[in-house]
Amino acid sequence: MTARTPAPTTRTALVIGGGVAGLVAAMALHKAGIEARVYEAYDAHSGARGGGDGGGRGGGRGGAMTIAPNGQQALEAIDAAETVRTIGTPVTALALRSWTGRHLAQLAPPADLPATRFVWRTELHEAIEAEASSRGIPVHKGKRLLDATDTGTGVTARFSDGSQARADVLIGADGLRSTVRALIDPSFPKPHYAGTLTFTARVPKTELPSTEGVLYMCYGKKAYFAYQIFDDASAAWSVNLPHREPLTQAEAQAVGAGEWLKRLREAFTDDRTPAPDLLADTSPEDVLITGPTETMPPVQTWSRGRMIVIGDAAHAMSPTSGQGASLASEGAVQLARCLRDLPVGKAFKAYESLRHPRVDRILKHTTATATATSAAARTATPKPAGPLSRALRDALLPVATKVGGAGGAVWGAWQFDHRINWDEQVG
Fold first, then answer.
1. I need a surface site. Which of 37, 187, 393, 421 has the fewest CB within 10 A?
2. H-helix or E-strand containing 28?
3. What's the burial of 297, exposed, middle or buried (CB within 10 Å: 0-12/13-18/19+)?
4. CATH architecture of 12-89+113-191+299-372+410-416
5. Would you place residue 403 in the very low, low, confident or very high pLDDT band (cuts 50, 70, 90)?
6. Which among 177, 179, 139 is positioned nearest to 160, based on CA atoms?
């Protein structure tokens, strides 16, 4: 390991987007000796955030998500892993079931890694924002980016409220519909509707037994259903409901949680899984309508001049991958290391060289797993799997998930055991 340069040539950074990727990037830059300021489009009272957060009540907790071991290791590199450990509930394994209740597979992560953590998105965001604030990182809200000018020596950002900000670099952590991505290259692909609407809920009380840390994914007869029941008798569930016509989040919310809950109960009437009982235990006020699922073709170019995108703005992951926030955290930490050790142009090239192979492999793996199992691909289309497709899936899935030995095709060690050496010099 060679000695690191005493001070980065990049002194200041504008981070567009106050979600997980943006806040982690700001903390990593701060640790690298770079002054970072975060600009978030939504204000403090909107109840919604960029990058797909917010929108609906859901018990005030936002949607459910998981932070994988590699995401926790990335946070460990910047001394922030405790924020997830404090609020998260361990997920010891992932279990797959058919709509008949048949057990198809159970996949456990490597035992020597931190347990995957189940978290509520809002609680995670609040915890990370509080940690960033404690480190003296300013987060400016109500700052929707309109445009940015790269002068060759810095970037000036212009916001919808008429204000401006300038720094050495601009980092777009502004989610699937990234404004920064469009500034880098207007021809970048746009998100596509994936054929389902997503709903999440926290059930305060259920009579069903605890799943003892196991997160269940059920390939229902008409829709996909995931759930976990906790030791305190509360539970969380998520549904991908096929819907032929695309609806915006606002349009889906206008239908009303009560009406959607009625439709969800009808969709799972025939399923012999805990889905009917959990839906029966759910009140409309606890349902979060998170809106349409969307996919985006891979983006190969992440930077131009002094602007770069990270997280969902660069590589949107399927929600079923469980890697969205974790890969975003990895990328945020690695970008800070690159800017710490190299001039901007070389730093961005080094970052893309570091990240593209890993991100591309996980994207390819997620697609291959969905195709191999047949089930995941079916949940992303408006047409549910038919009887023959379900029979083939249930026969092949137990075999497919055993490929590669312990951990199977989904929970392989190569995804989760990804440690970042903060002190190692880049380049």
1. 187
2. helix 20-31
3. exposed
4. 3-Layer(bba) Sandwich (3.50)
5. very low
6. 179
